[in-house]
Design goal:
Layout (H helix, E strand, L loop, with lengths): L2 E5 L6 H9 L4 E4 H8 L5 H10 L12 H10 L1 H25 L5 E4 L14 E6 L2 H12 L3 H10 L3 H6 L3 E4 L7 H26 L1
Parallel strand pairs: 1-3, 1-4, 2-3, 4-5
Helix pairs in contact: 2-5, 4-5
């Protein structure tokens, strides 16, 4: 399967872009969605979190208190390291399984930490959705209803913009309106169809 990695900093509009690709029938494997389900009620990961932090890490219904845990790991970097060591292997396993099951002409691996977590090694090509820092801060604060200080913490936890761009084979600028994205995605979709078909033909010739 030919895999396109899609990433972007928080507030970049990465999901809007992958939704446009999905409208062409392209399967999107979203690392954020997989990560959320890793912590479903009854899961080994959630049980480990409860054992470490107690019931304060849970909602009244027994599900994960994501806001509490997010604040905890931002305040204590060692706890973030512990959580990553717990969840990253589980997330990778699920991502690989879903990528292998995809039945579209190519498949997208969408991950905000694609570069940081070395998920680029599963990708044939990398697309970065890029916005200016000012746009990033404005959109994140408005969408997530969080303070400017927390927005800065989130941005610092991700790879610097320059590092993401250095890993890119293609870049979509999303500082403008959503209508500006449509022609960019349409052009890239055709390019990826051609690349995936060429890769498949090459593989067949070698087998």
């Amino acid at each position: 399967m030919w895999v396109l990695g899609v990433t972007g900093g928080i507030g970049s509009g990465k999901t809007t872009v992958t939704d446009l690709f999905a409208s062409y029938g392209i399967k999107v494997v979203d690392a954020d969605v997989v990560a959320r389900h890793i912590m479903d009620q009854g899961s080994p990961a959630l049980k480990a979190v409860e054992e470490r932090y107690g019931t304060q890490a849970l909602q009244a219904d027994g599900s994960l208190n994501r806001a509490w845990l997010r604040e905890k790991i931002f305040q204590e970097p060692a706890e973030k390291d512990w959580l990553n060591a717990l969840t990253h292997p589980l997330i990778r396993e699920q991502l690989i399984e879903q990528l292998q099951q995809a039945d579209s002409p190519y498949v997208i691996l969408s991950a905000p930490l694609l570069v940081e977590n070395n998920l680029t090694r599963f990708c044939d090509r990398v697309l970065v959705v890029d916005v200016s820092p000012d746009t990033q801060r404005e959109r994140t604060a408005k969408r997530d209803n969080v303070s400017a200080a927390q927005v800065e913490q989130i941005i610092k936890a991700q790879a610097p913009r320059e590092k993401r761009l250095a890993a890119a084979d293609d870049i979509i600028n999303n500082d403008g309106a959503i209508n500006d994205l449509t022609p960019q995605v349409a052009k890239l979709h055709q390019q990826y169809l051609n690349l995936a078909a060429a890769a498949e033909a090459d593989q067949r010739s070698k087998s």
